[in-house]
Structure formats: C-alpha cells, structure tokens
Amino acid sequence: MSVLARVAAGRLAAARAVIPCLWRGQYFSSGKEPAEDNSVTPMLRHLIYKIKSTGPITVAEYMREVLTNPAKGYYVTRDMLGEKGDFITSPEISQIFGELLGIWFISEWIATGKNAAFQLVELGPGRGTLSGDILRVFSQLGSVLKNCDISIHLVEVSQKLSEIQALTLTEEKVPLEREAGSPVYMKGVTKSGIPISWYRDLQDVPKGYSFYLAHEFFDVLPVHKFQKTPQGWREVLIDIDPQVSDKLRFVLAPCATPAEAFIQKDETRDHVEVCPDAGVIIQELAQRISLTGGAALIADYGHDGTKTDTFRGFCGHQLHDVLIAPGTADLTADVDFSYLRRMSQGKVASLGPISQQTFLRNMGIDVRLKMTIYREQHLCSKISVHNMKSFLNEVISSLIIKDLLPCHLDWEP
Ligand code: SAH
Q1: Domain span including residue 214
Q2: Per the structure, how many domains does the chain have?
Q3: Which residue did the predictor score with more confidence, 324 or 362?
Q4: CB of 278 closer than 6 A to ligand 1?
Q5: Looking at residue 216, what is its pLDDT?
Q6: DSSP readout, 190-236?
Q7: Which pTM was predicted?
Q8: Contact (CB, 8 A) for 412 and 369
Q9: Which among 61, 64, 67, 75 is the best mutation to test ligand 1's pocket, defined by most ligand atoms within 8 Å of the CB?
Q10: What family is reported (predicted)?
C-alpha cells in the first residue's frame, strides 16, 4: 500500500472517456438478435466463396478469417477501440488501471529477487494505452528500477493498430525500423528510452525473465462450438443459407469432428466452446515462465468451465449478430479459465481467476480513486469519476501464472 500511495501522490489521473460506451462483457448473445445491417461486405463475399469451394466452416475458422485475415480482417484494418469505435476497455477509460498493473509488475519483480533485466510482453496491445500507463509508472519509480535492464515486446497482428501503438509509445522521436517479412516487424525506442519491438507471434519474442500481460486478448481467439445431441457431440458449423444466397446460418456437423478432442470426457454441459489457440499460447507462457522466470497476468471476460454459448458480436457499441456483415463488427467469446489452468498445470503456479474488483481493490484502487477525486474535484465531472469507478464493476477476471521457484520479499520502501 505504501508503494501505491507514493505513486498516487505524484500524479493526477484524468478519466479518458466520459461517454456511456458498451463494455464487451455487458451483454450476452446467442447471435440471434435481429439483423440490423444486411450489407454484403467483402469479407462475406470471401466467406461465401470459401464455403462454396470447401463446404461449411467451423466457428473457429470463421472467427480467424473475420478478425485476422491479413487483407480484410476486422482487427487488421481499423481502430475499433473507444468512443468512435465498437467497444471500450479499462485502459481506455482511465490510466489508473495501467498504473496499478505497473505497480503489480514491480512488486513481483522485487518479490522474486530483483532480476538484472526483465521484458514486459503485451499480447494484443490495442492502442498501446495500457503499456504506456505501465511505462509511466516504471519511469516514476526509476530509482527502484535504476539498475534493471527493461525492454518492451508487443505481440500484435494488426498493422493498423501497431502503427497507433508506435505513436502512443514512442512518439517516433527516434525513427522506427520496419521489416515487413521479419518476425520482428518493427523496432524502436519508447519515449522514456526503452527498446521496444513488435511481433506477430509470441513464439518469436526472445526468451528471458519476463512479465506477460494479456488484457481482452484471449477472448478474441477463435473458438470451436459444440452441441450435445443424441448421437454425441456435434460441432456447430457456418454454412450459406439455402433460402438467401448472401446470408450465413449455423448448422450442425453430420458426424464427429477433430476439435471434439478438446472437450473434457466428464463434460456435463450440453453446449461448449473450446479454444485450442488459447491452449497453445498458455502452454508457451507456462513453458517460458518455468524456464526463465517471471509471471503472466491474463485479464478477460471469462468463466470457470461453466458457461455455454457466449459467442457474440459488437459494432458501434451495440450488440451485433455475429453472422451479419462479417468484418465490420468485433467477435468475442468468454475465456474458459479452467481450461487455461489445466493447460498450464505442473509447470507453473496459477492463481485465480479473481474478479477485476478484487484484484484492483487489493492493489489499493480505492485510495487511488479518493486521491484523484480529491485532487481533481474542479476538473473532474461526476460522470468521469463514475466512469473510473465503472471498471470496478466490470465482470472481467484475472488469472495469474507464476513460476514455482521459492520467492523472497525484500521490498524497502
Ligand atoms: N488489450 C487492448 C486491446 C484489446 S482488443 C485493450 O485492452 O485495450 C484485442 C487486441 O488483440 C487487438 O490489439 C488485436 O489487434 C489483437 N489481436 C487479435 N488477435 C490477435 C492474434 N491472433 N495475435 C496477436 N494479436 C491479436
């Protein structure tokens, strides 16, 4: 708590958004809302061509194409965050969120013996806002970190968003190095002089003592959906509607499909979503942390293996039918934290998930908010304070994975 108080005293926080934006966890949809936009998008034409050539596609393939197709993907072509976009996230609401995470990373670094160097690795950094807030805390606590060699590594598939991240974090004071075909497709130096690199894949990030951060990243990874039937599990597929040639519809696979292997043998739900990509990433994180140390914090909308149909779309802060106008709306499915824990088991310790409210309260957000309100009472309207508090009520949870090595505490305030 004393760490937090020192940082809080040194800063004024300003709420970033004062509009009643839609949080991605706020609503639940089975994708059956009335269609509002029937436009035949380039992505819909691409998918119809694909389905006509090879048959119905899995929901995972649909999500992958719609979100990250290198030419037309939703994430690849636009900035979807914030007031003018499709949804809002905690770091875009207030810098307090990132500042508290920054403190958490520093306290982990201290608790595990003040390694001579660490990498901060963010998966899916959006506009770079969260890393920017964390880096500001690192600068403010420069005296604590002064002998530590820090580097920043961003895993991002979107060319568009990586350019925004570069602007946020480096202000391009030193010209960026770009090499489109290389695993490190961009390199630079942050505003505070820290080396920063961009990758498309976690596998390409150098191994070494690292803190990993994934905020609203796992929920956009492709999920396979399964329905229990009298014949056993059948995968939900996406096909062309035979009644309307430029419309998609859900169908059930006529026989078993390979992704069924990801369903637990003792599964009791009648509908499940499984995310093999999340399993690959969490195993890579666990492997890295067990070999070279560090920790990972995964914050997302999620559940502990209890929810069923969570696949939903967002466009312009409205819930959006997932099959309508693909490529113009965000697609997301709640993260199954029980699966992530299972996939990391044995290699690392996993803590949580705990609610965002509990995590932030444990980190002292109440004190931080009180100080902000006190200091900014002349600048801050009621609604902005309300917005800063609103992320406390969000249904996001955090899962933390850490190495199993014994740690010691030698924090000297
Ligand atoms: N973490 C940010 C943004 C969340 S949106 C925030 O909380 O504000 C999801 C982010 O993940 C975007 O930056 C998107 O481009 C990125 N992304 C989506 N799929 C990805 C993938 N397969 N690999 C790397 N980044 C991905």
Answers
A1: 71-221+275-402
A2: 2
A3: 324
A4: no
A5: 95
A6: -TTS-EEEEESSGGGSPPSSEEEEEES-GGGS--EEEEEETTEEEEE
A7: 0.87
A8: no
A9: 75
A10: Belongs to the NDUFAF7 family.
